[in-house]
Amino acid sequence: MSEPKRILVCDDSPTYTAGLRRMLNHGPDLRVVETRGDAESAIEALAEVRPDLVTMDVELPGIQGLEAVERIMSTYPVPILVLSSQVDRGKYTRSAFRAAGALDAVRKDEVDLMAVDSDSATAFRRRARILASSRVIRHPRATLRAATAARRPTEPLEAIGICASAGGPQALAHVLAALPADFSVPVFVVQHMAEGFTDGFARWLDDNVALPVALAREGSRPSRGVWVAPEGSHLVLDGQRVVLADRPRDSVYRPSGDRLLESLATLGAGAAGVVLTGMGSDGAAGIAALHEAGAATIAQDEVTSSVFGMPKRAAERGAQRVLPLDGIAPALARLAV
């Protein structure tokens, strides 16, 4: 017998969630393995839970239905079944959900949660099995919409943080070389590198991009150019000065992309964070902090990433834009206007 299909239920009603779990688990073919009460935490859970199907309400705290569907399908594609009393009301048409990337949408009153052996419950489980076995593709709609969204002009961009790991040197050079030579916003860079290579990497970047590139200096004030975290030190922006810290020593990476981006979150909408190609999850917590602070957040897309580990986790934690490598520098240039 094959393994049961794994389902993540996203609904903010504990009572409805319990009834849906009971009905879906009635039989050997389906198993609810995770429940979440809001879209943000559901998105964060996807990589770890790895469900075959997500059922999602549309009236949720935080991110609402259509946006949640779009974000999931642009970052972690998985079959989605919208299950809500709002289906076919106002803008929540079934065609709208399918356009956003969901496979199907069902009104809650069409499903009998009380009689688990009823015809409607049996038909719903059959539909869920079919959807959970479906193949889905990455959906570009949310990425395209976010990429064209206007930033509030009242918030001048003060600093940009970029972190990368495997495949990062080439990706960084590509992005930085595409920025205009008169780009005035300081760019702070964390690149995971083997011991002894950071100095040479900074010199190589300086030779290949129009902007001046140098290792960050303790106590310096943010200024135009690209500032690379030195080997063995966390690069942190503390108010209006640069701090090179050796703590926490238990960080997986030193320098840490998370430490850099979290420090930039103090600037609120005056900061922007970018996570490029790399293995692991460094930068994801920093992106979450920036997103919470109202800053602009970007992750490199899977197609152009050498390793879609760090950017994938960043997208799951709140990166507003998931862009191909060629789209990142133009997005940063627009933010700086």
**How many structural domains can be distinguished in the coordinates?**
2
Overall geometry: elongated
Say which CATH homologous superfamily of the largest domain is assigned.
Methylesterase CheB, C-terminal domain
Largest sheet data: 7 strands, parallel
CATH class of the largest domain: Alpha Beta
SS summary, helix count: 12
- What share of the residues does DSSP label as strand, in percent? 15-25%
Rounded to an integer in angstroms, the radius of gyration calculated over CA atoms is: 22 Å
Give an overview of the whole structure:
- The protein has 337 residues and is an alpha/beta fold.
- It has helices at 14-24, 39-49, 65-75, 94-100, 119-132, 141-147, 168-177, 198-208, 257-264, 284-293, 310-316, 325-335; strands at 5-10, 30-36, 53-56, 80-83, 104-106, 159-164, 187-191, 213-215, 226-228, 234-238, 241-245, 271-275, 296-300, 321-323.
- It has two domains: 5-142, Rossmann fold, CATH 3.40.50.2300; 152-335, 3-Layer(aba) Sandwich (Rossmann fold).
- The N and C termini lie far apart (59 Å).
- Mean pLDDT is 88; it is low at 146-154.
